[in-house]
Amino acid sequence: xxxxxxxxxxxxxxxxxxxxxxxxxxxxxxxxxxxxxxxxxxxxxxxxxxxxxxxxxxxxxxxxxxxxxxxxxxxxxxxxxxxxxxxxxxxxxxxxxxxxxxxxxxxxxxxxxxxxxxxxxxxxxxxxxxxxxxxxxxxxxxxxxxxxxxxxxxxxxxxxxxxxxxxxxxxxxxxxxxxxxxxxxxxxxxxxxxxxxxxxxxxxxxxxxxxxxxxxxxxxxxxxxxxxxxxxxxxxxxxxxxxxxxxxxxxxxxxxxxxxxxxxxxxxxxxxxxxxxxxxxxxxxxxxxxxxxxxxxxxxxxxxxxxxxxxxxxxxxxxxxxxxxxxxxxxxxxxxxxxxxxxxxxxxxxxxxxxxxxxxxxxxxxxxxxxxxxxxxxxxxxxxxxxxxxxxxxxxxxxxxxxxxxxxxxxxxxxxxxxxxxxxxxxxxxxxxxxxxxxxxxxxxxxxxxxxxxxxxxxxxxxxxxxxxxxxxxxxxxxxxxxxxxxxxxxxxxxxxxxxxxxxxxxxxx
Length: 510
What we know:
Layout: H1 2-31, H2 56-67, E1 70-75, E2 78-83, H3 86-95, H4 107-111, H5 126-140, H6 142-147, H7 149-169, E3 173-174, H8 175-192, H9 202-219, H10 223-226, H11 238-262, H12 273-279, H13 291-322, H14 324-337, H15 353-365, E4 375-376, E5 381-383, E6 386-388, E7 392-396, H16 398-402, H17 449-466, E8 467-470, E9 481-482, E10 488-489, E11 494-499
Parallel strand pairs: 2-7
Antiparallel strand pairs: 1-2, 3-11, 4-7, 5-6, 8-11, 9-10
Helix pairs in contact: 7-8, 8-9, 8-13, 9-11, 9-13, 13-15, 13-17
């Protein structure tokens, strides 16, 4: 009885807060000639939360067609604004980028990212700058990526041989599992001087499951984040699952760091990424990273570094299998430039314009992050003549921008040719062209943008060049999406691979 009364009181308080924030603030804005962007009215207390459904990026894109490119939603007790076109994204992520350089507090940052101790959720400030600087210098920047190109080549060689073995046995390749295994080992070699997984099996599959779980939980609209007064009830059970998952990750990361410390003597004169981070944990501003910061950073690198790139590659292969003419064009270009007597090398990619266009088309139609990680306004501002209050959450619908019919002709078609000539020929996915921002833009653009582009180009190019890909037993190709922080295929791609190069091309030469 006491609990029922307490619950009723909390819900009543939430309802009162909703009506106060909704109507009182609107009245004040009207009186001061300040106009909020248009948007759906939503429901009492919960606002627009029930409208989002299981595919928020799709729902928000549909709502934007009705309410416009800059749309306002009351989400529980919180304000949220959604940008759904290139111009709207540019206004937020370039014109007033500094004002939206922080992340709002949420359960994901608290329970998955060690209470925002990582690089992804940290406030824009000295600690974030130190984490970003160290990551760029020694792992994610251009020079660092060149330095570990040999690691990518060796690890991908292992994958090619494994695929050849599956082909000989007549077994299909489960593409996302294969990609996660490969990328985790590439990143592990650079960070820890060792492969994370010795063999592909239950351990690597569990890692893949943990990555997908984390990215899924991080993308869910958690009711408690938007109605703080009832967050303690954890109505969706999300926070409970987040805490369990964080414990599993903490066990794995702690084990990695402990084993790494034991082999420090073996790396004298040849430090890896973790050695460098541990030796440079303090900057000139007096900011010092603790072990939790380091652990949280490793979590960022292993999850975002594997899941986002692997999802792009999986979608690209699926689109090509759906349209064999695209596969044929890619093979013809690669055979002309590379031939069939050797593997593709990273230096070949600039000579493959059709393949580069294919990668851009995948970034457009299947961005790994459909909705950018939310940001929040530090101060009130004005966008496109609309008033944006302080502490308003910003969501950029990257998925909707890539399918905007005012920007892209026949946006639902997969046409790499659109990037070969005309107005889209020089568009680049690195955050400066707002028609194509798969990694976001501005100060909080994904730190792994360069790495993501390199991994997608090299791994996808090698898989396309090295094999013919077919559905097992003439099965049907499912192209449904599964929403999360990263946009997964609802049904993982499983395909038969047939080698198409000379046998010597698959023999390791390192």
